[in-house]
Amino acid sequence: MVELKNMTDKELAQRMVNYIEQLENLMYDVSDILHNKLPIEPYRVENIRSIYRRLKEDIKADAHYVSLLRNEKHGNNLYNNFFEPSIRGASAFGFVSPTNSVLNQKFFSSIEEAHYKLTKYHGLDEWKIIAQ
Q: Is 6 exposed, middle or buried (0-12, 13-18, 19+ CB in 10 A)?
């Protein structure tokens, strides 16, 4: 397990950028399927579900990590003020669809909600600036 509390602001921001970009790619792929822009191929659906499952598990693990008292970081910093509430919110309110569910509007909305929670305090561009 990665020790998030020991990461620098740059490393935390890069982790968040990675999550947000993956969610945006998922939203784009699911949207294309929902609007029939691309044919629905079984391998593509399984790939989307696999990425969704991995993101759900990774964000849930990060949320569990930051919720443990021994992993609290004291002071006014990026970890406490932005990373922790974003990760907790994405885990709690995003990813509500089962990992094997049909790719429908509910599935898309669960990805969108996780994306919203991760960008609630800082947008992708702001996270990228911090990650530089």
A: exposed
Q: What is the pLDDT of residues 98-120, one digit of tens each?
A: 988 888 999 999 999 999 999 99
The domain spans of the chain are: 9-131
- Picking from 16, 5, 11, 29, the residue whose alpha carbon sits closest to that of residue 118 is 16
Q: How far is CA 11 from CA 30, 67, 78, 80, 96, in A?
A: 29, 19, 11, 14, 27
Can you tell me which residue has the tokens 């898309």? 108
- Can you give the pLDDT at residue 1? 62
Count the neighbouring beta carbons within 10 Å of the beta carbon of residue 98: 14
Amino acid occupying residue 73? K
Q: Are 88 and 120 in contact (CB under 8 A)?
A: no
Cα–Cα distance, 82 to 32 (Å, whole number): 31
pLDDT tens-place string over residues 34-81: 887 666 788 888 999 999 999 999 999 999 998 887 777 777 688 889
Q: Which residues have a Cβ under 8 Å from the Cβ of 75 and sit 6 or more positions away?
A: none
